[in-house]
Amino acid sequence: MADEKDPMKPDGEVNPIDTDYQIGQDNIAMKIGPFGLDIHNRVFLISGLTIIAFVLLTLIFQTQVEPLFSGLRNWLTSSLDWFFISAANIFVLLCIFLIFSPLGRVRLGGTEAKPDFTYLGWFSMLFAAGMGIGLMYFGVSEPLTHFSTSLAGTSLEDGLRTDWAPLAGAMGDVEEARRLGMAATIFHWGLHPWAIYAILALGLAVFSFNKGLPLTIRSIFYPLLGERVWGWPGHFIDILAILATLFGLATSLGFGASQAAAGLNYLFGIPEGNTTEILLVIGITAIALVSVLAGLEAGVKRLSEINMLLAVILLLFVIIVGPTLALMTGFFSNLVAYIEYLPQLANPVGREDTNFMQGWTAFYWAWWISWSPFVGMFIARVSRGRTVREFLISVLLIPSTACILWMSVFGGTGISQYLAGFTEIASLDLPLQLFGMLDSLPLAQVTSFIAIILVVIFFVTSSDSGSLVVDTIAAGGKINAPTPQRVFWCAFEGLIAIALILGGGLVALQAMAVSAGFPFTLVLLMSCVALVKGLMTEPKAV
What we know:
By secondary structure, this protein is mostly helical. It has helices at 41-60, 62-79, 81-100, 119-130, 133-152, 174-189, 191-210, 222-225, 232-268, 274-294, 297-321, 324-345, 354-381, 388-419, 433-439, 444-474, 483-502, 505-536; strands at 27-32, 35-40, 156-157, 160-161. Helix 7 crosses helix 18, helix 9 packs antiparallel against helix 16 and helix 12 crosses helix 14. The longest helix is centred in the middle third of the chain and has 37 residues, at 232-268. It is globular.
C-alpha cells in the first residue's frame, strides 16, 4: 500500500520536475459565514462566471437559442468529422505504441510503488467507470438502430446518401446486418473511447505521482510550456477542462432525464415532456447534493456499490430469461465482427455513410473527449503502483469488455425480439426501447422499475463524482477542498442540464458537448507529445 498520509509521495526512483510552484499558492482561501472556500482565483472565477452567464442567457433566450444549438452541432459534426475520427485513432495508436515500447515499464508512483488496490478491486473500479447512463440509454437502442438501418440498406437523393446505415449497410441480409450493427455499436463503446480516457488518465498519473505536480490537467503540459504552465496558458487549459466536463456531464444528465421520464410514463402514465424532465433533474440533483454532503465514502462509494449490484442482477436476468445461447455465442461473434469492420469504421476520409459518420461517430468522440477529464482523473487516482503497460492494457480491455458484454446482451435481445416479430420495438423512441425490450420478458414491471433506479443512481454518482473532479481542477489541484465548492458545481451541473433542456432538448445538450469537445481535442493531442516526453525521462521498473 502507498503511504496513506501522503498518497502523492513517490516510492523508489522517480525523476521529479523541479519547480518552485506550491499546490494552492494562487488560491484564495476565505470564510463566508460558516462556509470555507479554497479556490484558484482565476480558474474558478472565469469558469464559474462563464457557466452562470451561459445558463442565464440560455434561459432568457430559449426560443432563439434552439436553432443556434442545432446549427452549431450540425456544423461541427459535418465539418470536423474527419478531425474527431483521426484524433481518436491517434489515441488508440499511441496506447498500442506505449504498451509495446520500453516506456511501458515505467511504474506510476515510482520504481518501488505498490498498487493501492488488489487486481479485483482495481478491475471493479475500472468496470464501474465504464458503466453509466449512456449504457442504459443506448444499450438496446443503438444496436437495434444500426441493425435496422443496415438491413434497410442505402438510399440516394441527388447523388448523396440519405440513410443512416453504417458503411454500405447490408440490405436484406439479416445475419450481416446484425454483425454490422453490433460492430458499429462496439466501435463506439470499445477501444477508441477508452484510449481517449487512458491517455489523459496516464498523463495525470505520471505528472502527479512521478513528477510531483498538482493533480490538474495543466500539469501534463509542463514539458511543453515549462513554468508558463502556472500562468495564463495553464489557466486556459484548466478552464477548458472544467467547461468540457460540465457540458459532457450535462449531456449525460439530459439523456438520463429523458430515459427516466420515458420509464415513468411507461410504468405509471406520468406525462413526458420538458416539465417532467426538469423536475427529475431537480430531484436527482438534490439527491446528488445529499451524496456530496455525505462525503466520498458514504456517498459515491455506497451508491456505486448498489448500482453495480443492480446492474449485474439486471444483466444476468436478461441473459437467463432472454435468448441465452444466442447471447453467449453472440458476445464472441460480435467481437469478431468488430475486429473485422474496425479499419473501415475508423477510416476518417472518403466515406459515403456521412449520416452515420457525423451523427453517431463524430458526436460520440466529441462527447467522450468532453468526459475525459472526469473519467481520466478517476482512473488516475485509483491506478497508482501500476506499470504503464499494465495500466494501458487493463484500462483498454476491462471496461471495453464490460461494454461489449452489456451491448451484446441488451442489444442482442432487442434484435432477437425484432426478428421474432416484435418489429414495433425499432419504432419506439430511443429512451423507450430499453423498456420495450424488458416488456417482452417476464417480470417487466419489476425490471423496468430497477432500470429507472439504475438511471437515477448513475445520474447521482456521475453528478457527485463530476463535481469532485471539477472542484479539484478549480481548486488548483487540491484534492480535499471545502465541501461548499462541490455543492456549487453539483448544483450548476443540474442548472446547465435544465437550461439546455429548455433551450432545445437533447440537440442543445449534444451541441454543447461537441462544442466543448472540439477545443479539448486539441488539448489532448498536445498532451500526447507532453506525455511521451515525460515518460522518456522516468526510470523504468525492473
